[in-house]
């Protein structure tokens, strides 16, 4: 393989990586902006921008003996947002539905 051809291949691969990264970044920014617009519309029109999911939380207390004691709290409703990304300080409902058990290490 000649040095000229090797240089062209490296240049092509660098350009391909930069274009791929730019496209991924642009798609993420577009999704974030669209999600924000839909959320603001739902808030303004009062079309259920927030939801509630029942969460079970428990505390894991490490003992000196190396054992762990679990203290379970009663289930409680937690407010979430109906969006793809976190909004207004709340976790998205799609994420909270998949993580209904929350552990706190003490």
Strands, helices and their partners?
Blueprint: H1 3-45, E1 50-62, E2 68-72, E3 76-81, H2 93-98, E4 101-105
Parallel strand pairs: 1-4
Antiparallel strand pairs: 1-2, 1-3
Task: Supply the key terms.
2 domains, flat, 27% strand, 106 residues, alpha+beta, 4-stranded mixed sheet
Describe the structure.
The chain has helices spanning 3-45, 93-98, and strands spanning 50-62, 68-72, 76-81, 101-105. The protein is of the alpha+beta class and 106 residues long. It folds into two domains: 1-47; 48-106, no CATH class. Strands 1, 2, 3 and 4 form a four-stranded mixed beta sheet that branches. The N and C termini lie far apart (61 Å).
Q: Percent range for helical residues?
A: 40-55%
The portion of residues forming beta strands comes to: 25-35%
Total DSSP E strands: 4
Residue-averaged pLDDT? 91
| Biggest sheet statistics | 4 strands, mixed
Helix-strand makeup class: alpha+beta
Shape: flat
The run of helices and strands is HEEEHE
Low-confidence stretches: none
Provide the gyration radius in Å. 23 Å
Through-space gap between termini:
61 Å
Please, how many helices?
Answer: 2
Question: How many structural domains does the protein architecture include?
Answer: 2
